[in-house]
Amino acid sequence: MLSYEELLAAVTATSGDSREVRDPATDAVIGQAPVSDVAALEVAIDRAEASQRAWAALGHEARSEYLNRAADAIEEHAEPLAELLSREQGKPLNGPNARFEVGGAVAWTRAAADTPLPVEVVVDDESGYAELHYRPIGVVGAISPWNWPMMISIWQIAPSLRMGNTVVIKPAETTTLSVLALVHVMNTVLPEGVLNIVPGPGRTVGDALTRSPKIGKIMFTGSTPVGKRIIEASAPNVTRLTLELGGNDAGIVLPDVDPKAIAEDLFWGAFINTGQTCAALKRLYVHDAVYDAVVEELAAVAAAVPMGVGLDEQNVLGPLQNRAQFDIVDRLVESAKASGARVVLGGNPDREAVGNFYPATLIADIDAHQELVLEEQFGPALPIIRYSDVDEAVALANELEVGLGSSVWSSDRAKALEVAARLEAGTTWINSHGGLHPMIPFGGAKQSGYGREFGVLGLQAVAEPHVISG
């Protein structure tokens, strides 16, 4: 097993163009991330294209064996990977953070390897016979984000490889080393040319990846505006797309809840990864009958959760990954305060301190159409909106153009299911928010994207359906 120092040395740039990488918690320099150009991208695409047929010819069983070996390698290097992730992304080692993310990368790799996808007989009667097969698309271009850089990269890489595609991945510019390290570890067991990584700017390398006629499929997790640009750039080649785009997830708390019983799950639904999660709870609608109690219990939980440098074992909330995101959260909270909303907790960052730390913030008595409610904050600030009629809450939850996740909180499952059926989102959770499972399909509705990841649907999404009839 490589140590942290050896793993970092394996991915740190020693020549060519590079970018200084700093820990968002301490501002300490971690290393130098390589910065590639479009020429390097084209070499990687050609390498992936040249390797694809042989990889596909191995068949499902052999490819699954390789993926399980890759999962073994990630697991073997779990601690140095988690340390690098914590230093670069900022998330703490403990809690649902760095070690959790590396463990998720292992679990999703194994799930992609082991999920059966047999040939489906769709017709077998007097009218005829037809089978549905799933063939490789070719080369998959993956573009991963900075909030869960390792795990979301695996969501793109593992199913693509399992289905016989090769991959060219472009990591986010601010979490390059983490994904380079993940790919380095996987490539100790994968055949050469099957998994390729090209770090570089989105405006050049990312754009060229989406425009390449040699790319058969693009998988992207990120903002809706960038997703729209990918649609436009890839359209001339009719490139297949899976887009998991921005969300502004709503949660609706019904009047029959026990506020104390749900407070901790509400907190982690909103504040997992310090709020930097696409499917985190980002606006909470609470019935007037329990509003004050829910706010009080949620504040009690939030006040007790330690935030700080990720390598300190006691911390479970960390800094925002980059200063630009800090500034977005700060602007939105200040806007809410200026509107007359009540700050229950937080809202008072030390803007001069080292590190991108924004305190866990709860904003109550806020107008349903205030900026903090309508705009995705992607950070540790939760607006809590009072309502008196559930139809009103459903209408408010549904009125935005995004619909990634949502949740309903109630002690009556039947009532919760009734409300859940009315919400416009890719996933609606009952009495929890944001939990994912490698066998449960995940993706967005409306402008939160299209296509599904995970499980059988996720494998089918990175393959070409082929009907053989007769």
TrEMBL record:
<feature type="active site">
    <location>
        <position position="244"/>
    </location>
</feature>
<dbReference type="InterPro" id="IPR016160">
    <property type="entry name" value="Ald_DH_CS_CYS"/>
</dbReference>
<dbReference type="InterPro" id="IPR016163">
    <property type="entry name" value="Ald_DH_C"/>
</dbReference>
<keyword id="KW-0560">Oxidoreductase</keyword>
<comment type="similarity">
    <text>Belongs to the aldehyde dehydrogenase family.</text>
</comment>
<protein>
    <submittedName>
        <fullName>Phenylacetaldehyde dehydrogenase</fullName>
        <ecNumber>1.2.1.39</ecNumber>
    </submittedName>
</protein>
<dbReference type="InterPro" id="IPR016162">
    <property type="entry name" value="Ald_DH_N"/>
</dbReference>
<dbReference type="InterPro" id="IPR044086">
    <property type="entry name" value="LUC3-like"/>
</dbReference>
<dbReference type="InterPro" id="IPR015590">
    <property type="entry name" value="Aldehyde_DH_dom"/>
</dbReference>
<dbReference type="GO" id="GO:0008957">
    <property type="term" value="F:phenylacetaldehyde dehydrogenase (NAD+) activity"/>
</dbReference>
<dbReference type="Pfam" id="PF00171">
    <property type="entry name" value="Aldedh"/>
</dbReference>
<dbReference type="InterPro" id="IPR016161">
    <property type="entry name" value="Ald_DH/histidinol_DH"/>
</dbReference>
<feature type="domain" description="Aldehyde dehydrogenase">
    <location>
        <begin position="15"/>
        <end position="464"/>
    </location>
</feature>
<dbReference type="InterPro" id="IPR029510">
    <property type="entry name" value="Ald_DH_CS_GLU"/>
</dbReference>
